[in-house]
Amino acid sequence: MVVLDVSVVNVALPAIQSALGFGDADLPWVAGAYTLAFAGFLLVGGRLADLRGAGRAVTAGLALFSVASLVGGLATGPGLLVAARAGQGLGAAVLAPATLTVLTARFPEGPHRTRALAIWTAVSLAGGAAGNLVGGALTELLSWRSILLVNVPIGAVAIAAARRLPTGERRAGRLDLPGAASATAGLALLAYGLMQAAPRGWDDPVTAGALAASAVLLAVFALVETRSAAVPLLPPRLLRLRAVAAGNAVMLLTGACFQVPMWYFLTLYMQDVLHFSALETGLGFLPHTLLTMAVGLRVTPRLMRVMDDRTLIIAGALTAAAGFLWQSTATAASGYAGGVLGPAVLVSAGGGLLNTPLTTTVTSGVAASDAGAASGLMNTAKQAGGALGLAALTAATAGHALAGACGRAFLIMAVALVAAAALALALPARRDAA
């Protein structure tokens, strides 16, 4: 639900605009409110899992997400729908790091944790790929409201299942409120500034003001974390771990390619260059999803027993870079086979190879008391990478014809993944041990 709801509303935006009377300038907030709240509260959500117990955080996140989905599905005006989407994002920010913390707390480092994280990553990938497909199908067959209301019964079943999770121990200490305020506001303003960069330009006062305020608030956050008397959201000791610091830098770069931009530019290519319908576009993403899941679930955990994680991350990044380089040459004449399916083999195989080793690396060597903070940092790096990547690529492709813009974007993604492979050389060598 968390990853799917990032993109599930995209194909339903025209129907939402018609039904609720959104203006053209306000319509992007249906998607943006979710992204802003999600990115802004991830560090807070991760630390709540440490302080109140990961199992409790999962249940609370599910409840908030489900209630917000119900309110959004029944919304009668633009303001209520945008507020509900922000509520979904807040629930997601608690839920995403808490589910990862449950796994890292339950499974010690080694093959069992690797297997658990491979499944967690595969579910996340499936949700991301399914967003456009599910949104298109539900909107065409039922109504745009169904894309939000469907979360309510799913959430109820998930809450019932979450009651079987270990609740986790409550930890003494209070939440770092100054750190939470500065981090949340700083990250939200960063996401807002990046969202405004594409329509307004980087030199627009609104864009520049939001990014400047974000830089100040994040600097304040860094200062607060070194002097906090409470339990800090991001303990400085975490960033002294080479696997965590370098691994999250690699996560930021890979997120700038896989997290949002790949789906965005592939959607443009299939719908506006190949002239696919929304439902056909969703189906066109199935090879990416199925192949990435197959490699991530069946191949990568076995390779991690005989090869270093660092080697797999580098190999995966370079394989995906070759796929994006191929994708950058696609034209209308390439068709689906040459313009989507062929590159998808390399992109998906590369993504399947690097996702689980990278997730394992950035959560390895972390004390149990900081597991939630590490999970929140990893999710923040991934989401921030997606927002940064989309904003930068949109700006870099402005003024180009659509096919040329997509090609340019995929070429930049290939370069970014080569840079990620080079940065991965700084990671410590690690291999699964029984």
Q: How would the blueprint of this fold be written?
A:
Blueprint lengths: L3 H4 L5 H8 L8 H24 L1 H20 L4 H29 L4 H31 L4 H4 L1 H12 L14 H24 L4 H23 L8 H4 L2 H17 L2 H13 L4 H7 L1 H18 L5 H19 L7 H28 L8 H27 L4 H22 L11
Structural account:
This protein has 434 residues and is mainly α. It folds into 2 domains: 368 residues, Up-down Bundle (Growth Hormone, Chain: A), CATH 1.20.1250.20; 55 residues. The chain has 19 helices and no strands. Helix 3 packs parallel to helix 5, helix 6 packs across helix 17 and helix 9 runs antiparallel to helix 10. It is globular. Its main location: membrane. It is found in: Cell membrane. This is Putative drug resistance efflux protein. GO terms for molecular function: transmembrane transporter activity. InterPro entries: MFS, MFS_dom, MFS_trans_sf.
Quick tags:
Growth Hormone, Chain: A, mainly alpha, globular, 2 domains, 434 residues
Indicate the radius of gyration in whole angstroms.
21 Å
Q: Please tally the β strands and state the result.
A: 0
Number of helices: 19
In total, how many domains does the architecture comprise?
Answer: 2
Arithmetic mean of pLDDT = 83
Into which percent range does the helicity of residues fall? over 70%
Q: Could you give the distance between the termini?
A: 33 Å
* Helix/strand order: HHHHHHHHHHHHHHHHHHH
- The CATH class of the largest domain turns out to be Mainly Alpha
Q: Supply the CATH superfamily name of the largest domain.
A: MFS general substrate transporter like domains
Query: What amount of the residues lies in strands?
Result: under 5%
Could you please say which CATH topology of the largest domain applies here? Growth Hormone, Chain: A
